[in-house]
């Protein structure tokens, strides 16, 4: 009988963790492993296994898992515990509809407060995206570009919700961009959005963002309904 691989075997812990840092270290370590696929979708994360791995009690483990659940990276399932959440699937339309609402509001709040350094940083991410071929990096740079434009929004809870949605998209892009046949990605949408933000044109920025996200959901929905995507999920 073949033994299932341990999803935690790829995680290395260097020495004891100070008690006051335990929750944040566990959270960030698991978050990185989920985002880069070392801990796959559907993997169950048991509190005692994690406590043994990190050399801590179960209390900071519970707190870290609760934070990851709030970020939509984990689901808590009866009799199974914390399970790594699936990638964007058939609810892509609903997911992006919610993202449009949240990100539009974050953009409205942020644009009047953007600084020159923010514009320069966002420009750098676009330039890197145009030459990047590594699918993991593309997802990360896309998230960083958008968060830079939203970062001055004073509503921090809104920003956390926005970043949760971008994290979900990053995971999806990381594992599906190649299969979607999207190698060299045009940055025209991003450049137009950045120009409007630089000119402090809030309404035009929101219009461009909405168009950009609607285009994304069309491409993702088309892919999810393709025979190749259905075969990968079966």
TrEMBL record:
Pfam families, sorted: FCD (PF07729), GntR (PF00392)
Highest taxon of the lineage: Bacteria
GO MF term list: DNA binding; DNA-binding transcription factor activity
Keywords, comma-separated and alphabetical: DNA-binding, Transcription, Transcription regulation
Gene3D superfamilies found in the cross-reference section: GntR ligand-binding domain-like, Winged helix-like DNA-binding domain superfamily/Winged helix DNA-binding domain
InterPro entries linked: GntR_C, TF_FadR/GntR_C, Tscrpt_reg_HTH_GntR, WH-like_DNA-bd_sf, WH_DNA-bd_sf
UniProt xrefs under PROSITE patterns: HTH_GNTR
Domain HTH gntR-type: 20-87
PANTHER family in the record: TRANSCRIPTIONAL REGULATOR, GNTR FAMILY, TRANSCRIPTIONAL REGULATORY PROTEIN
Name this protein carries in UniProt: GntR family transcriptional regulator
